[in-house]
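Action item from last meeting closed. Structure (220 res):
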């Protein structure tokens, strides 16, 4: 059968279309999103913030629940976010981790505290002030963040962050060795508001959202 697919991120034309199940992910990105800009290549694909990253060498994987699960990723609700090779995967992990931390309701302390600690450690690494201790903090918390979890959010934190660190360890090492991000560019949080001829519109208000779900109105 067919499914409705959304493709956003570092693509030529963010879009939505009906695609046949079993289509290789490479072709899904090309047909729905127009591929990435000329001279660039796909580095990573996320199916929202609920599944592990699909790195470039697995783009031949058919788009199906079974095939994506087989390679350690997932299909989710068929909303795919694409990043090309200019994107910093530490910053991507930080943005997604912060989103989950902010959205955590706080009923389960390991979820709220763990996602906060992971986000803070990723923030230090991305800013160039991270150490091996921060990597250890992340590794420790991804194993415990789901303790007592009543919903799937903590599992999302564990799957997304651990998959990025596992798939792109060299990028983490580069930050630690250089004391700076080697790929400094804005990486917007792909929280979609609208999708039309002008491209994708993201919800920028989330950058002002606090962990208690109030908003910082003084932020620019």
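Sequence:
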């Amino acid at each position: 059968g067919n499914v409705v697919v959304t493709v956003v991120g570092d693509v030529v034309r963010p879009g939505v279309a009906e695609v046949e199940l079993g289509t290789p992910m490479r072709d899904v990105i090309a047909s729905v999103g127009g591929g990435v800009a000329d001279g660039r290549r796909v580095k990573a694909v996320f199916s929202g913030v609920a599944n592990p990253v699909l790195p470039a060498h697995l783009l031949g994987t058919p788009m199906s629940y079974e095939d994506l699960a087989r390679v350690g990723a997932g299909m989710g609700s068929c909303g795919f976010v694409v990043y090309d090779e200019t994107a910093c995967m530490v910053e991507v992990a930080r943005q997604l981790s912060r989103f989950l931390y902010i959205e955590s309701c706080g009923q389960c302390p390991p979820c709220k505290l763990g996602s906060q600690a992971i986000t803070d450690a990723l923030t230090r690494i991305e800013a160039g002030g991270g150490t091996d201790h921060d990597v250890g903090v992340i590794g420790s918390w991804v194993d415990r963040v789901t303790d007592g979890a009543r919903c799937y959010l903590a599992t999302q934190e564990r799957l997304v962050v651990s998959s990025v660190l596992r798939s792109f360890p060299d990028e983490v090492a580069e930050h630690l060795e250089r004391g700076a991000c080697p790929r400094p560019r804005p990486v917007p949080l792909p929280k979609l508001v609208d999708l039309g001829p002008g491209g994708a519109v993201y919800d920028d208000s989330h950058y002002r959202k606090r962990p208690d779900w109030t908003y910082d109105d003084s932020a620019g």
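Note appended to the action item: The chain has a mean pLDDT of 96.
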